[in-house]
């Protein structure tokens, strides 16, 4: 069930009051059942998969923690990590790698016809696998006490607000919350409702409207790719994916907050980033933190000299790209960001800047010119992320060299501005006031008025589409 | 007052404001917005008068915008012999599934004409598209919403949207509201929308069309027979003669259902269409004359 569907609100309205009527242990059992129901609603056949990996990781976690034998601990870690990666690899990447291998062999004159599985991708597998990997690694490194309750651990993995599309929760942040009793806090619930309203606006008004324009541009319905159509499509997709995913994250955080949990912030005004490094501190923070902690740092981080750091950055982003989907477009998207980060780092070093690029004070003009430049670099990479194939992306970008105009483009630009500008202004406010959601620290009547305006916009300007959240496919 | 109860009151105010806005939207849609829409007014009045066209010598034309422009409301009663009465119900953008369940609901509501003349093109007859929320609101009975959604291949989440649309006028009508609001706020929205929504691809496989169409026409025929009615299938005129239309005509014959195909005295030309798809007044006049003649023969056989 999508967070923006009526059935989700029926589900939430049933879960929240019942949940608060129960005691801690019962609350966790009830939330676990509700989470499995939520997951089974998508496709009950995949429940067996999540149950298996949950049980194996829980058992391995306990065995690792209880063992003093380093060889046995390593073996258990290897077994748990392998199982998670095998599940992920089988369901998500098998066909992709089999096809890519066949294509590569064909190019050297060897014809093979790989047996493709065409299996459905289990919902949320990329997200819960990463959360399980984080848990098992943290337990192995003795950074985290393992959960002694299967119910608590299963709830940590499958808690419905983050189950399908994150935010990927750090075990040290969420697990203690699962294990400790929670009390109802009306102020937190208020914030939760505000987050849900804000998320719905981002998804249903901004993202779904932008999706109409982006789909038309990338689908060729705005005419043969030309500069105007390419720019409309690219900007529309940039706001679509931001509205879509940040909206989803807000709704996830809001839903969790109604149940007394706190989720980490997943987006902090990414299009106001002044460098690519800054962008990755603001965009999909839960994934970039995971990649940093469980990939970049284990690869060596910035400890092995400049060349190794550049390589690690590039590899991390490349794998981050592949995490998004089994397609070369995502690999190129990741490579572009990896290369961009490496070049940016080299550039700062060449200029002799020893200070952190993000923390350094810069002038207003430079700040804004950096923001514009970074936004456009990010947009360029989005073209590869959105296109169906590398060839389609290049053909789309080639349209930049062709000038054409239709009166409908004017309306499209106006429509795009109508939805993107309010979101941009909200981001500016969030940035200035350092808030988690708009008007967070304003007087109550202002916040209620803001919610009323947002709900009114939602009621009358929600696109009537059944577009799924983009990140559900990952 | 304690801090906790103040917070609780704030939460209550916030939730109340949201609920009130939703209730306001529902009431405004039922009382103000729907009655003030020209299209909505037409659909509502056509649906309302439909039960009046029940009985032995009555005929009901049903279909979408193709029928809306092909057979004018004022002309529809004149297309049947004097002893007959005829009326029309048109709901834009409707397809096979909308009418499969819509006709079922018509029978429940007591709409039992002797003849039902349904117009759909080949794509609308053989595809699985629907008018979704709006159909759930206007054409479907509550118990049909779930089977309708299943037949349309929808996920339970989308079926839940249909259910809400059936009970909430605002939810079922919101797409139309948005369309109207956007076209008022942004001139040119209609032209842009035409560009954004890709044109439907024609049905290329005539054999498949004939097979699917025959089974669907037979199904519709059986459905109307249950309320002792007879189905007549109307093939809409096209700017260019198409193989899939011919396949639909053949399918209707396969299903032993009366079918009226456009006259082939001469091809329809562009002046007989408003937009290449819907008939203009002159095109409608020509088509109506042809339908009147064909119906006279068919209705003569009806006891």
Protein architecture, described:
The complex is a heterodimer of chains A (474) and B (303). With 474 residues, chain A is mainly α. Chain A has helices at 6-20, 24-43, 47-66, 70-107, 125-140, 150-158, 160-163, 171-179, 186-218, 227-258, 276-282, 285-296, 305-324, 328-350, 364-386, 390-398, 407-433, 444-461. The longest helix of chain A is centred in the N-terminal third of the chain and has 38 residues, at 70-107. The relative contact order of chain A is 0.10. The mean pLDDT of chain A is 89. Chain B is α/β, with parallel strands linked by helices and 303 residues long. Helix content of chain B is 57%, strand content 10%. Chain B has helices spanning 3-36, 38-49, 65-70, 96-108, 122-126, 132-138, 145-151, 156-167, 169-185, 189-196, 206-225, 243-254, 281-301; strands spanning 55-63, 85-90, 113-119, 230-234, 258-260. In chain B, strand 1, helix 3 and strand 2 form a beta-alpha-beta unit. The radius of gyration of chain B is 22 Å and the shape is globular. The model of chain B has no long low-confidence stretch (mean pLDDT 88). At the A-B interface, helix 1, helix 9, helix 17 and helix 18 of A face helix 1, helix 8, helix 9 and helix 10 of B.
Topology:
The complex is a heterodimer of chains A (474) and B (303).
Chain A: H1 6-20, H2 24-43, H3 47-66, H4 70-107, H5 125-140, H6 150-158, H7 160-163, H8 171-179, H9 186-218, H10 227-258, H11 276-282, H12 285-296, H13 305-324, H14 328-350, H15 364-386, H16 390-398, H17 407-433, H18 444-461
Helix pairs in contact in A: 1-2, 2-6, 3-4, 3-5, 3-6, 4-5, 6-8, 9-10, 9-17, 9-18, 10-15, 10-17, 12-13, 13-14, 14-15
Chain B: H1 3-36, H2 38-49, E1 55-63, H3 65-70, E2 85-90, H4 96-108, E3 113-119, H5 122-126, H6 132-138, H7 145-151, H8 156-167, H9 169-185, H10 189-196, H11 206-225, E4 230-234, H12 243-254, E5 258-260, H13 281-301
Parallel strand pairs in B: 1-2, 1-3, 3-4, 4-5
